[in-house]
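Hi all, long-time lurker, first post. I run a small reading group and we've been trying to get comfortable going from sequence to structure in the token notation. Rather than ask abstract questions, I figured I'd post a concrete chain and ask someone more experienced to write out its structure so we can walk through it together at our next meeting. Sequence below, copied exactly:
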Amino acid sequence: MENSDSSNSQGRFEASVNIFVDPTQKAQIMDALSKVENIEDIYEVKGEFDIVSMVSASSIEEFRNVLHKKIMNIKGVQSTIVSVVLKAHKRPKSALSSIHMH
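-- Answer (accepted) --
Happy to help. Here is the structure in token form:
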């Protein structure tokens, strides 16, 4: 019988939320995103998206609330593209180094 837990080791739902923003509001958006508890990482990027964030939640319902009630309600956020994490094969070294530095 297959385990019904999510595929990551903490039993958390994780997703990459790629965000398109009004460029004149980028600084305020980054500040607002940094205050959202469920957002683990935020990256300002150059390319198709303006901001890439990693969101962690206890369930798909909690993630949906974070996306629609927090991220999408930030003034200047125009749209998002979500990619659900099925399984993490390698975690960023920065995540590991921050643990060892404290």
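A couple of things your group might point at:
Residues 60-71 form the longest helix (12 residues).
The domain at 13-101 is CATH 3.30.70.920 (Alpha-Beta Plaits).
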